[in-house]
Known about the structure:
Elements: H1 3-7, H2 21-29, E1 45-46, H3 52-61, H4 67-77, H5 92-101, H6 107-128, H7 137-147, H8 151-169, H9 181-186, H10 205-208, E2 232-233
Antiparallel strand pairs: 1-2
Amino acid sequence: MSASAINKISSFFDKNYQTPSWLSHKLSRRKLLKSAAGATAITALPVLAFSKNEKDELSKAFTSDPWLTLNAVLDHLLPESNSGPSAKELHVAIYLYNVVYQQPTEKNEIEFIYKGVGWLNGFTKNQLQKNFIELTTAEKESMLRGISGSTAGENWLNNLLGYIFEAMLSPPIYGGNPQGKGWEWLEHQAGFPLPKAGQRYFELPKRSVVSHKSAGNIIQSKDLLANKKFQKMKGSNKA
């Protein structure tokens, strides 16, 4: 399903919606995450640091939609608890922000993520006369369960859940998993060497050369996470 086709869809419950091919491929590849957790913990990790201007830019983005609602949905999907780190602690929203504005993400996927925000708020307004962020925890749960009953709603939520897992498992340089909190919780040892700014997969020469045909699918913007100086943090080894 193309961006133009998605633009014609009016809600999560529109019967004209069909699972797009890019999402079908992502969901099939995501099965690999089942074996992602290892048996040991983190070692030395870079600590992500933002300048004041970058913090201000991120804070401003998260005060209005679509990021205001996206952040609230991610926080609800992985809330604070005693059993493990939350979406907030894992910086999932910052990771997703970097996916949208820096990484070579398909334009159709970004359009779908943004459209879902409008469809969700349209649904909650119709049901409860309030935007998603204004709802109680119980109301948010009810509304998300409601949209999950549709193909589009299930697809949208699954895509966001996938980014929660990615943020939890990826090196901190990509914006999520600060100080390896996700790895530590899962007792997972990351591969080596860990990427640095300028050496992330989308910054490597083969990925930076964009053909004319694919250029339209890449979102160009300032990288909020590159060219940073990182401190090394001592990790602990577990048996």
